[in-house]
Each structure stands twice: as C-alpha cells, then as structure tokens.
Design goal:
heterodimer, A: 490 residues, 11 helices, B: Serine Threonine Protein Phosphatase 5, Tetratricopeptide repeat, 2 domains
C-alpha cells in the first residue's frame, strides 16, 4: 500500500508550500544606490497575481525577490508578512487557507503521523467546517479507512477526488476500498485513474492494479515448468538412495476460492511431474484444503485443514491429513510470522510404510522491510517425525533466513536458506549407530511479470547433506524454468 | 526547450546585470534545472512581464512540473496566442503532459501523436510509452460516472471564466461519449462546446 508518510506529504504539499522565505530582513539586499525599484515592482506584480490565484509559494518567492531588489518596497513587505506570519492581521489571502487553519492543519497531520487517528479526524473535521478542502478530506478519509470506517472514508475521499492536486491519491484509496468490497471493476477504474499520476501514487496504483488482476474471490493459477534434478531418489525423510539425476516436465493447476478477504476459503491443487528417464519417480499430487483467515492487509491469522494424496511412478504413495495454523503481524517495517503444521502421514508402499506417522513442523521469523521493495527475515524452525519404526523418527531444528528483493516494479528475487540439525530417535540397525545429520539448504527464485497475468519463473535449489554415517552424505541441485499464469475473478 | 538548453550552457559565467527579460529567463532556467520550480515560475513570469512573450511557454512547462495541470493548460493557451512562433516539440510534449495530468487523455494523445521524433529519442520514447498507456483509456467505453466528472469540471471551469479549459473538458466528454453506444451526454457536451466557443467569441478571442 502507498506509505502513509507519502499520503501526508502529498496532502501537505497540495495544501501549502513551506514558508521558507521570511520577510522583514533586508539582509542580503543591495545597497541603496543599486536598488532596483522597477524590478521589485515587477516581482511584486507577479507576487500579487500569484497571491490572487491562490499560489502562496510563488507569491512568497516573488515578494521575497521584490524585497531583495528594494527593501523599502512596503507593499511587498506587508504582503509577505501576511503570507508568512502565523496570525496575519488584516489583508486578504484570496483563495488561501487562513494561517490559523494552516496551523490547525499541521497539528492534525501531526496527530495522524503519531497514530492518533481519532484525534486527527476530529481536528480535520473542525477544519472542514470552514469549507471543503481536498487535502483535508483526503487525510481524514485515510484516517477513517485505517479505523475500518469504509463508508465514511469513501464519502471523504470522493470529496477529495474533486480537487485535482489530490485526485489521484484519493482515487488510489477509493480503489483500495473497492477492492476490499469485492467491486473489482470499480477498483480497476479507480486504480487506472490513479495510475495516470506520474509520481509514487501512480507507481503504487500500477502495482496494486497488477496485483488485483491476480486476486479475487476465485483465483485460478497454473504453472508449467521444465527442470533438472541432480538427485531424485530420496526417501521420505530425505535420505538419498541413488544420487541419480534426471530432467522433468511439470504442470500444476490451482483453484482458490473465498467469499471475503477475511473468512473461510477453499483450495484445490493438482500437479503432475513427468521424469524424462526414471519414470518410476513420476509424481502425481492432489491437494485439497479448507481454511479460515482473519485479519487484513499484512497482519492476519489463519487455520487450515488439508488432505494430500501423492502417487509415485503411477502407484499410490502417500495419503496424509494436515492441520496448519499460521499468523503474521506487521507494524511499520517490522513483521513477526509464525506457522505450525501437523501431518498424519500414511505411506502406501511397502518400502516406505515404516515412515508413516505424525510429523510436526514449526517455524517463526522476524522480518524487516527495507524501502518499498526489499524485505528480509531471520528465524528458526523445528520439526519432528514420530514414525512407526522408531529409529526412523527424528527431531530437527535450525536457523533460517529469507529475503525478497524487488527488481524494478515487475521482477523480484526470492531467496531462502536454512541450516538443519537432525538427530534420529534411536540406533539405526543398518549402521549400528544413532544417526545425526546436518542439512544446508538454499533456494533462489527469480520471477519476472511478463504481463498482468503471466510470470516467467526460474528456480534453483541446492542441498548439502552430511551425516555421522559418511555414506549418507550427498548433494542435490535442481534448476527449473517455468511459466506461471494467475487470474483473479469476481 | 532547445533555447532553454542554450541558455543553460551560457549560464555558468553569467552574473545578474541589468535585469532584462533574458536575465530572468536565465535565472528561471537555472532554477528549472535545479528543480526549484516555484522559483523558476516566478522568474519566467517576471520575464513574461518584462517583454518576453515566449516566456509563457516556459511558465506553462514549469506549471506542469509543479503539478498544476489546469493552470498549465491555461498558460499554454496564452502562449499559443501570444507567442505562436516560439512553439516547439518539447513544449508540445509538456503540453501533452498537462493534458494527461488533467485527465484530458484525448488531448494528450493528439499532441503526443504529432510529436514523432522531433523532441529527441528519449522524449520520443517516453511519448510512445505514454501513448501506449493511454491506448486503452481512449478506446474502452467509459463509465457514465467518468463522463459526469468531465461535465462537472467543464461547468466549473466555464463558471470560473476559464473558457479554454472548459472547452477541453467538453471535448473530452464528447470524445468519451462517442465510445459508448448510447452516446451518454454527448449532445450536452457539444452544446457546452458551442457555449464555450460563444464565450470565446464574445471575449473577442479566436476559438
């Protein structure tokens, strides 16, 4: 979303320029013999014209220039004093907001910056008594929106929209409201208007417009990918059995449906991965989930039940029920995230049956946003697998780090690395010792939006596994290139 | 703006002396270059008052930079009347930006389409990009609300005596209405245009 500071800056700059020029000091003025009364008069005329048209900033500059040329130009001096003093005596300010209101406006924006939205609303409301004012309506509307009063916010933002200087920003926030209410067509129109702004508002609107085309009550997505995996033969716990590499082609389709941004949702995904040579590892994956999510924007909590069914080489491989809970809280640049999942796994082949059991995974991280496009997070993860055959069970834990780096406005790099220390539950009968493994994993994804609905994606992953059983050490590299389609509807 | 560049090239060794219109143009150019647009605006306006009618083009371009598109459009209108000979492709580009910022998309597209490569490759590329952005806005039937907005602006500017601006808004309303099968408020827009032209004629200015 457009940063609040930017909205305030927009409204403040639209309302009045900084009073950087203080009249009354003849410092820097030419000596009397070089006074230019004619030049001063011209500047004064320009100042008068600017003042009459409501252009305070230009008027101040013009009067200041007039005084530099003729410090005795009383008319310019008085006019500048009227424009610069916090409580002007007499005179007219044309279309200008009275200085007392300027001070009240600054006070109200100060309250808003400090998070006192109710106080800011009251202050803006007092200002609006003296007449409609676009910047005031914009900021009051944003405060109402932040408090969840969409109806009142819409009213105020519609008022603000009539003033060209803040029309784009008002359209942007009206677009956000429309998106939240599921009025996608209205949102697209409003954001298209806001996108015409050639500044940050336009950039933010363009981003939101693109995102909105991939969002909605129903989201359809598809991925097609080709890749290479240097080590496909892994057991369910990640133990390598062969170290053979193979290429693959994969297709995935997904359907996500929800009624509201907060509330219940359903998800269905189906994936088929075809190996080029080792077809015994052809993978089919069907996953359904029902969940509920609450919260808005970047702070939310969700809970989900899911069912996964996997086939390998055309034969049933895994049936698993899954419960997942997660939450994220973000304030300013800082975010906290946590997730916990438990999966009731039933492996369906004789070779892997012993791995069936209950698997727990939990992780948490602290994130920090740098600028508009970059976010990094560091955290910790832990997991355990309580399997039927005791020595195959384990407990693992370790640190993790994630980064999301925007490249321009339509490309991004996602990176994650984690180190995992795993200790198995008992002495492995095959090796005669209790295994202790270490895994260093890294993943990087580069995504580039090629249109509002298509994204080109390149992914690379790497793993280095070491163990106190030297034979179980292995490396694994994967690389894939894919095309993603995402379309939101309703 | 070519002239502006020439002036800028001469700027470094020039000190204020005599305060002619050219001095103010130079000073304005210096501020413009430094992105101090309010100061530039004042200097260009002083130049305008001290006899350089061509300064109106710079005033208008600076108003575009100050994000005051309606004022800029008024200034461009004034420049076209008082210093038509000073018009060049770069001013037309700024004029198009003013139209764009005032949501006069047909006006922006018309000006940009006439630019070609005249203002140089960088500006020409930007112009092409803006035209690409505009393409869907001037080809998809607009909502009635959008057309109502143009009528409201046209009436407001006409009441304020900003006749050229009112004419632009009515023109836009008429062009947008033509995209709709029901021609929503098109007759009203054409009538408004006629009214604006009558006001121009009454004021003795060529429409």
């Amino acid at each position: 979303m457009i940063p609040l500071a930017l909205a305030i800056q927009l409204a403040v700059s639209a309302a009045s320029g900084p009073c950087a020029i203080l009249a009354g000091s003849p410092e820097g003025a030419p000596d009397p013999p070089t006074r230019d009364t004619e030049g001063a008069a011209t500047y004064r005329d320009v100042g008068d014209e600017a003042r009459a048209s409501g252009d305070v900033s230009a008027a101040r500059v013009a009067y200041e220039q007039a005084l530099r040329r003729d410090p005795n130009d009383a008319e310019a001096r008085i006019a500048l004093q009227v424009l610069c003093r916090p409580d002007p005596q007499g005179g007219t300010t044309g279309h200008l907001r009275p200085a007392a209101d300027e001070a009240a406006f600054e006070e109200a924006t100060g309250l808003m910056k400090n998070g006192d939205r109710a106080g800011a609303i009251a202050a803006f409301e007092r200002l609006r008594v003296s007449g409609p004012d676009g910047p005031t309506s914009l900021l009051e509307g944003i405060c109402e929106l932040q408090l969840g009063h969409e109806g009142r916010a819409r009213q105020l933002l519609e008022e603000a929209r009539a003033e060209p200087s803040v029309s784009a920003a008002a359209s942007f926030f009206l677009g956000i409201i429309a998106l939240g209410e599921g009025r996608r067509d209205d949102a697209a129109t409003l954001l298209s208007v806001a996108r015409q702004d050639r500044g940050p508002v336009g950039e933010n609107a363009a981003d939101l417009l693109t995102a909105s085309r991939r969002d909605g009550r129903v989201l359809v997505s598809a991925l097609t990918e080709v890749g290479y995996d240097s080590n496909i033969q892994l057991l369910p716990d990640g133990t390598s059995t062969g170290g053979t590499g193979d290429g693959y082609a994969s297709a995935l389709a997904g359907l996500f449906a929800r009624l509201w941004a907060s509330g219940p949702y359903a998800r269905l995904t189906a994936q088929y991965r075809r190996q080029i040579a080792i077809t015994a590892y052809d993978l089919g994956d069907l996953s359904v989930a029902l969940g509920v999510r609450t919260g808005r924007g970047s702070s939310y909590a969700s809970a989900e039940y899911g069912y996964d069914f996997l086939s390998l080489g055309g034969a049933s491989y895994l049936s698993a029920h899954r419960l997942l809970g997660g939450a994220r809280w973000k304030s300013g640049r800082v975010s906290l995230s946590g997730a916990y999942a438990v999966r009731f796994e039933s492996f369906l082949t004789s070779a892997t049956e012993g791995y069936s059991g209950l698997r727990h995974d939990a992780d948490g991280d602290v994130g920090w946003q740098f600028g508009h496009l970059t976010e990094v997070a560091v955290g910790y993860h832990a997991g355990s697998d309580s399997v039927r055959v005791a020595p195959l069970g384990y407990f693992e834990h370790g640190p993790l780090a994630r980064a999301r780096i925007g490249v321009g406005r339509s490309a991004r790099v996602l990176a994650e690395t984690r180190l995992t220390f795993r200790g198995y539950d008992g002495v492995d009968p095959d090796f005669g010792i209790q295994r202790a493994d270490r895994y260093l994993d890294g993943a990087i994804t580069v995504e580039a939006d090629v249109s509002s609905r298509w994204t080109l994606r390149a992914t690379g992953t790497a793993r280095r596994a070491t163990s106190n059983v030297a034979d179980l050490a292995y490396s694994k590299l994967t690389a894939a290139l894919g095309l993603v389609y995402a379309m939101g509807a309703m | 703006m070519k002239r502006l560049a020439l002036l800028l090239a001469l700027l470094s060794s020039v000190a204020r002396a005599g305060e002619t219109a050219d001095d103010h143009m130079l000073e304005g150019a210096r501020y413009f270059q430094a992105q101090q647009f309010t100061e530039a605006l004042v200097e260009f306006r002083v130049a305008e008052r001290t006899g350089d009618a061509g300064a109106s083009w710079y005033v208008a371009s600076t108003l575009v930079k100050l994000r005051r598109p309606e004022d800029a459009l008024d200034a461009f209108e004034r420049a076209e009347t008082s210093a038509a000979g000073d018009r060049d492709a770069l001013f037309d580009y700024y004029h198009a930006l003013a139209c764009y910022d005032a949501r006069l998309f047909f006006c922006a597209d018309r000006l940009l389409s006439a630019l070609g490569e005249q203002p140089g490759p960088r500006i020409a590329a930007q112009a092409r990009q803006i035209r690409a952005d505009l393409a869907h806005l001037i080809s998809i039937p607009p909502s009635t609300g959008a057309i109502d907005w143009y009528h409201a602006r046209a009436q407001a500017t006409l009441s304020a005596g900003r006749i050229a601006l009112a004419r632009s808004y009515y023109n836009e309303a008429s062009s947008l209405a033509a995209l709709r099968s029901d021609g929503y408020r098109r007759k009203e827009a054409l009538a408004g245009l006629a009214r604006a032209r009558a006001s121009v004629a009454q004021a003795g200015v060529a429409p």
